Amino acid sequence: MPTHQEPALRTTGLRKAFGEHVAVDDIDLTVPAGSFYGLVGPNGAGKTTTLAMAVGLLRPDAGSAEIFGVDVWRDTVRAKGLIGVLPDGNAMPERLTGREVLTYLGLLRGLQPDVVAERTEELLQILELDSAERTLVIEYSTGMRKKIGLAVALLHAPRLLVLDEPFEAVDPVSAATIRTILRRFAANGGSVIISSHVMALVEQLCDHVGVISDGRVVAAGPLADVRGSGTLEDAFIDLVGARAGGTEGLAWLTS
Ligand SMILES: Nc1ncnc2c1ncn2[C@@H]1O[C@H](COP(=O)(O)OP(=O)(O)OP(=O)(O)O)[C@@H](O)[C@H]1O
Q1: Measured from the CB, is residue 49 less than 6 Å from ligand 1?
Q2: Which of 13, 18, 107, 226 is in Cβ range 3.0-4.6 Å of 63 for a Cys bridge?
Q3: Cα separation of 37 and 220, whole Å?
Q4: Hey, whose CA ends up nearest to atom 18 of ligand 1?
Q5: Total domains, the chain
Q6: Cα 15 from chain centroid?
Q7: Does this UniProt record's set of keywords contain Iron (predicted)?
Q8: The ligand 1 atom nearest the CA atom of 16
């Protein structure tokens, strides 16, 4: 049986190659139960691939992932019951309204119809999707898709939320609402993993950070340890290699 001492997520030796290209190479990560964990890294570092393998969406070539001690690839149904996932790309039934999506997925997850109806109403309202009552998901903007994806992740009140870029394309008011929801969730004992490029946001929300570069973990642990005495952004640039370009080349642009 999983216990409360088990980490929310533990990955061991996760690896994935696409053809010749090794996208994720031997990733060991431990996300303590009750933590708010930020996964950061440059474009193409392997964050999405790592998270997809960790939550049972993409089969690893090697390694394992456990959610609260439950092996994701051996006991997938039980592991998935413990997590709410906002995946990258966020595939969902396109020809349904937001309310229909939540109702359909809520019932599919075995929630009682009255519980589904109540939670759906609240989620649509708090995420300001209720006005789009007759809009099909296929017509949603990118930010609206993020919000309905987040609602889907929250619906069954999971113990761990795994959210790939939850704030991307979301307007500032909605972002503030999402921050509040996630903080409340974490304050009540929930565990959260987000991937993000926005260091200030990660610094504000997260108590633990993992930095991935070129498919490998280059730093991980409590925020204060990874950040050191500077900002997370400084630490990040040091860790992934300062390669800030832009001062040379493009002569045609400035002539
Ligand atoms: N389905 C795929 N087929 C081939 N290559 C892939 C596939 N998915 C990811 N990759 C490659 O794997 C590497 C890691 O990609 P991934 O999307 O995990 O990075 P990321 O850290 O999430 O990037 P970003 O911050 O830009 O979203 C990249 O080089 C990417 O091109």
Answers
A1: yes
A2: 13
A3: 10
A4: 46
A5: 2
A6: 19
A7: no
A8: 12
Instruction: For residues 18 and 35, give the distance between their C-alpha atoms in angstroms, rounded to a whole number.
Output: 31
Token code pair at residue 107: 């019932």
Q: Which domain holds residue 174?
A: 1-82+162-255
- Over residues 47-96, the pLDDT tens digits come to 999 999 999 999 999 999 999 999 999 999 999 999 999 988 767 888 99
Does residue 166 share a domain with residue 61? yes
Do residues 66 and 123 share a domain? no
Our mutation pick for probing the ligand 1 site, out of 27, 47, 51, 193, counting the most ligand atoms within 8 A of Cβ, is: 47
Q: Say how far apart CA 14 and CA 16 lie, in whole Å.
A: 7
Tracing tokens 């860790």 back to the chain, one arrives at 239
pLDDT digits (tens, 9 = 90+) for 172-197: 988 998 899 899 899 999 999 999 98
The percent helix, strand, coil of the chain (3-state, each to 5) is 40, 25, 35
My answer on whether 2 and 77 are in the same domain is: yes
pTM: 0.92
